[in-house]
Amino acid sequence: MIPFAFTFELKDILLILIGLFLGLFFSFFKKDYRQKREKKISDDLAYIKGINYVISNEPDRAIEELIKVVKFNPETVSAYIMLGNLFRSQGEYERAIRIHQSIVLREDLDQRIKLQAMFDLSLDFKKAGLFNRAIDSFKEVIKFSSDNIEAFIHLEDIYEEVKDWEKAFKIRQKIASLRNSKEEEVLAHLLTEHGKEKQALGKRDDARKYFENAIKYDEKCVDAWLNLGDLYFLKGEIEKAIYAWEKVIIFSPSLTFDIFSRIKKALFNKDDDEKIFRFLEDMTKKYPENPYLKVILGKKLLDTGKNEKAVEQFLQAKKIKPNLKEARESLIKSYQAMGKLEEAIKEIKDMFSLFKENEYKYQCRVCGYETSQIIWKCPQCRRWGTIQEKDD
Ligand SMILES: [Zn+2]
Asked: Does residue 275 fall inside a structural domain?
């Protein structure tokens, strides 16, 4: 019995050992396989993202190289995604769409790779101007990754493009909650745009509500104040109009000339010179750091022959803002009127060295886009409220 029992135990132990060994072997193999697969996916994603930046400079060569890659390794999904992105960057949207679509439809791929392809497909639609398809596609991306801020930003951008301000507003609120920020500046601009649309349709009361709401979000939303002022003026509520326009002068002094011509139209008649003087003197006292008001007052003084006083105003304006063209031009005119030719010539020389031809007055503080007029959304980097007056 003993040997049998021994044999049984040994057999038993052997079986257990073999079982353990096999178990360990397979679990190790499986783990190893899983790790390799994980690594491959993350490599692929990194490859797609990284190469995106590199190839943006030489798309033609990159296309050539990638075609080689997919020819010899047809299973290289990341190379296909890249190739699609390159076609998009070259304006070949149909080809880009076809490639990205074929990846999205494949069933054997990891969800994250498919999601990346879906994101790129959405971008193809957007760039091709197929906004409805882009909206649906970005929504699909968001369904699988509900915290994808980039997808939300593109979605909002499309809603702005098609002037669906209400939806753009809602998406921006979502972005704000994802970023844990207020985004009040952008939200205010979106409300203002919505208000402008209402106003264009003749719905003044609705428009007013949007402008007022915009100001609640961002007290410094100049575009909202500007439109609110115009709206009050049209309704004959002059005091309220002046109040709103003054806010524009406070928050965006570079619009002072524009605002003053509105105020002049609202408050004064042609022969109201005295009143205008008083108003301007009050305003320059109220806003002593605003060089534009000084230029306006100076010009008025110059018109009425008060040259010395005019020069005083222009010099003060020039001191506050050395590159203020209007101050320097008016200064030259004053010196000419006063027969001070030497001073006039010196001022002209200074001006030539200061101003290049066609110099732009405004610039985007993020991407550097230059423009001669103030705009609320940068056409280059597509951000709200980043265009500002150039520094001295
Ligand atoms: Zn910009």
From this structure: yes
